[in-house]
Automatic annotation (TrEMBL):
Domain (Luciferase-like): residue spans on this chain: 18-271
Name of protein: Putative F420-dependent oxidoreductase
Transmembrane segments: none
Tree of life domain: Bacteria
Xref: CDD domains: Tetrahydromethanopterin_reductase
Species name: Crossiella cryophila
GO molecular function ontology, one term from the record: oxidoreductase activity, acting on paired donors, with incorporation or reduction of molecular oxygen
Pfam hit, one: Bac_luciferase
Length: 298
């Protein structure tokens, strides 16, 4: 199925804690601003399928995509049914991001953790083997939340491409080389927009705090970042060094944000979804920032 993401989209956690009326209005404004796709996370709020269906119904042209649906939360046959249903009802407007989340988060919710690549391969096999009835038609394109080499290889082999989350530009170049030229590479980019450089960096550092707190459960992420950028354990201390903050989060005025987005494309991204980073523990969509950035990004 042909799905056109456009060059720049929006990624958000904010829908998790927002009333549906606010979510609907925000999605409609994001579409009116001209962003090509709207990506959202899945945790303990609305499930990915329901959220996607609601957003598709509320908008007219924009691509809607879970970024990502967590495979432990969805039976593969049921998700295959939902994928076909949304692709049929909204042709060319739905893409399905799939990921494994992390071991601690899944085990806290009663799931049995399995090696990520093996689990994802088995899940894709089960989706493809699901005995579906109903109207035949093309399924939606799938992307995998690939960070490391083996998941990237699986993404290139079995899906439309990769959707890495919260990684530096160096990782985009690394993943493009690993994926090859044909696979789609959809990159998430955290940003803080503020005319005052000091305040922009302060907000960026605050938004980094939960990731540093989860360092022991996301060690493979930090190991890969270290290998690609040269940051060390010392950069993770005391709220994160300036070098780490600058690598992970684009911060500053609109032109500085645009410069980082251009760097992502130069490194090999096909689509960049920007995510407005806010104070730790305060998930907000950042519509004011998205309005200001639209003229320079789109």
């Amino acid at each position: 199925m042909s799905v056109e993401l456009g060059r720049v989209g929006v990624w958000t956690w904010a829908f998790e804690a927002s009333p549906w009326g606010q979510v609907r209005a925000a999605a409609q404004e994001i579409e009116q601003l001209g962003y090509g796709a709207l990506w959202f996370g899945e945790m303990d709020g609305r499930d990915a399928v329901s959220q996607a269906a609601l957003l598709l119904g509320a908008t007219e042209r924009m691509v809607i995509a879970p970024g990502v649906a967590i495979i432990y939360r969805h039976h593969p046959a049921t998700l295959a049914q939902a994928e076909r249903t949304l692709a049929e009802a909204y042709p060319g407007r739905f893409a399905l991001g799939l990921g494994v989340s992390n071991r601690a988060y899944m085990e806290e919710r009663g799931h049995t953790w399995k090696p990520p690549v093996r689990a994802m391969r088995a899940y894709l096999d089960a989706m493809d083997a699901a005995p579906l009835t109903g109207p035949e038609g093309p399924r939606s394109p799938r992307l995998l939340a690939a960070l490391g080499p083996r998941m990237a290889d699986l993404a290139a082999e079995r899906t439309w491409g990769a959707h890495p989350y919260f990684m530096p530009v160096e990782h985009t170049a690394y993943l493009r080389e690993r994926l090859g030229p044909e696979a789609k590479l959809v990159v998430h980019q955290n940003i803080t927009l503020h005319e005052d450089p000091a305040e922009a960096r302060r907000l960026a550092r605050s938004s980094l705090a939960p990731w540093l707190a989860m360092g022991d459960t996301t060690s493979s992420r930090w190991q890969l970042i270290s290998e690609l950028t040269g940051v060390t354990e010392a950069d993770l201390a005391d709220g994160g060094s300036d070098r780490l903050v600058d690598a992970m989060i684009a911060h500053g005025d609109a032109e500085m944000i645009a410069e980082r987005v251009r760097a992502q494309f130069t490194a090999g991204a096909d689509h960049v979804c920007i995510s407005v980073a806010t104070e730790f523990g305060v998930p907000q969509l950042g519509l004011a920032q998205l309005r200001e950035l639209a003229p320079v990004l789109l």
